[in-house]
Design brief:
CATH superfamily: Outer membrane efflux proteins (OEP)
CATH class: Mainly Alpha
Number of helices: 11
Strand order of the largest sheet: 2-3-5-6
Distance between the termini: 70 Å
CATH architecture: Up-down Bundle
Strand content: 5-15%
Shape: elongated
Number of strands: 6
CATH topology: Outer membrane efflux proteins (OEP)
Order of helices and strands: HHEHHHEEHHEHHEEHH
Helix content: 55-70%
Length: 445
């Protein structure tokens, strides 16, 4: 090789074997999560911490809980290891096989010989390998964004369960206190001879039952809080240990039309885009496998010789070594790639159907919970509360039998607990709808 052509050849080799990279790294995943929910935490921290800009307060709302979870969740950090694996696969795809150097020692009349084999076919196949690996990295990164959205949904559902449990605890404790006062009143009337033994026993049993229900509700609230703390990644920390739940007042907001929500979901869902990338990746791999029908290696032999003047010299003998694809045309690799492409296409179609179904189901649940909750809060609960208060006052005045009081109190308790459950159903349905849409806060007009 002449001195003038060596820089050109070196430049071509460097251009062909340049470092394979991808912009889809941890920082990219964090930015994507920040645009749809909250940013990703730094990872590797020894102790949980609050995201920048957040401080501990008396109440924990669902948006703060989501931010803390994405910042500290150990499960999400474990999932992030998949991105490191895929980026390592990308680096491996960009690497070229090392050349092979052979040396034959002089034995007997044979002179020393050297041979260098360079896999040129790998240079030709490298762009296809790198392109497929880059698509795989992006597919994994978008899948991790979807994992973050799944975590945000789980946290919002757990927060709704905690709010429900705390509301049930407060209601059960109020009912226990009410039944206790009523039982005490019946005891006074029994001592005065104005109440029967049956009335006394009935009200005492109801008071004991209400007290037991209150204790159970306190335990349920504690467990619901710990489940949420586990999802937020602060289970074994004093962070947010004595926090109270904070929930926004229920408001009626009209939802977007269902066809519009479905289109939003298909365009915004990270897992839908990941499935599309899976098809592209399988197509790239299929094209790469079709080129792997043989090997072509550049060969350079070196042998000692002598010039016409009798001085020692080296004889450079260039050549090539080709694998003849007579029996093996890489049928197995091509067949696997075709099957992967077919499976990726079927998964993509299935995912689109699942997305449409998820949005439809969550949309229906939100509407149903909103209608039921509005009816309870506007008509049913006020009417039952008024009837219960009137019955209790009439009983205290001696104008109403105890059976009617029991019935009114039970109806009021059931209505209050049902209203709490409907609020939780509405919050859970919204969490599922936002997850189905791939972004929070876009379900309403």
């Amino acid at each position: 090789m002449s001195p003038g052509t060596r820089p050109v050849a070196l430049w071509l080799l460097v251009a062909a074997t340049g470092c394979a990279s991808s912009p889809h790294d941890r920082a990219w995943v964090s930015r994507e999560l920040a645009s749809v929910a909250a940013p990703l935490g730094p990872g590797g921290a020894e102790a949980p911490s609050l995201p920048p800009g957040l401080a501990e307060a008396e109440g924990l709302d669902e948006s703060t809980a989501v931010a803390v979870a994405l910042w500290n969740s150990a499960a999400l950090q474990a999932d992030m290891a998949q991105l490191g694996v895929s980026r390592a696969d990308l680096a491996e795809a960009g690497a070229l096989p090392n050349p092979t150097f052979s040396l034959l020692l002089p034995v007997g009349p044979r002179t020393i010989e050297t041979m260098l084999l360079v896999p040129l076919m790998a240079l030709w196949q490298r762009p296809a390998r790198v392109a497929a690996a880059q698509l795989q990295v992006e597919q994994v990164a978008r899948g991790l964004v979807q994992n973050g959205l799944d975590l945000a949904r789980d946290v919002r559902v757990a927060h709704a369960e905690w709010v429900l449990a705390e509301g049930q605890r407060e209601t059960r404790e109020e009912l226990a206190a009410l039944w206790k006062r009523t039982a005490e009143l019946v005891e006074v009337r029994f001592q005065a001879g104005d109440a029967s033994q049956v009335e006394r026993a009935t009200f005492r049993s109801e008071a004991w039952t209400a007290d037991d229900n209150a204790r159970r509700a306190r335990t349920d609230a504690l467990l619901a809080r710990e489940r949420l703390r586990l999802l937020m990644g602060v289970a074994h920390s004093s962070l947010l240990e004595n926090i109270r739940p904070a929930a926004r007042p229920w408001e009626v907001h009209p939802l977007r039309p269902l066809p519009e929500l479905v289109q939003l979901a298909l365009a915004a869902r990270p897992d839908v885009r990941a499935a599309e990338l899976g098809i592209e990746t399988s197509g790239k791999r299929l094209g790469w496998e079709k080129t792997r029908i043989g090997q072509f290696l550049a060969r350079l032999d070196t042998k000692p010789t002598t010039t016409a003047a009798g001085t020692p010299a080296s004889l450079w003998v260039p050549g090539a070594q080709v694998e003849l694809p007579l029996f093996n045309w890489n049928q197995g690799g091509v067949g696997r790639a075709e099957a992967e492409l077919e499976r990726a296409s079927a998964r993509y179609l299935l995912l689109r159907q699942q997305v449409s179904n998820e949005v439809l189901t969550a949309h229906a649940r939100v509407l149903q919970a909103a209608r039921s909750l509005e009816a309870f809060q506007t008509h049913i609960l006020p009417a039952l509360t008024e009837a219960s208060d009137g019955a209790r006052k009439a009983f205290e005045a001696g104008d109403l039998p105890y059976l009617q009081v029991l019935d009114a109190l039970r109806r009021q308790a059931d209505a209050r607990l049902r209203a709490l459950e409907l609020e939780a159903d509405h919050r859970r349905a919204l969490a599922w709808l936002d997850r189905g849409l791939g972004k929070q806060g876009v379900a309403h007009e």
